[in-house]
Specification:
The protein is an all-alpha fold. Helix content is about 90%, strand content about 0%.
Amino acid sequence: MLYEIGLVMRQTKTCRCRSEFIRMGMEHYVQEQKEVHRRLVLQNRLAVGYQMMGALNLELAAEADDDAGWQDYEQALAEVE
């Protein structure tokens, strides 16, 4: 593995020593893990929000369905008159 690290360091010329290379790698890893955690927290918050809104969405959908039925009824009455 040290050989591979040396190759990467020579190819990229971004680090002067192995300890700097390892430090940069660890910083990158920590940032990735923070992002993964942030996404999981957001995903869970969205799931909870959708579950909380579920009952309201069903109620609104039922009201919209009732309104559509009422409009059909009124239109049928208007056609008869």
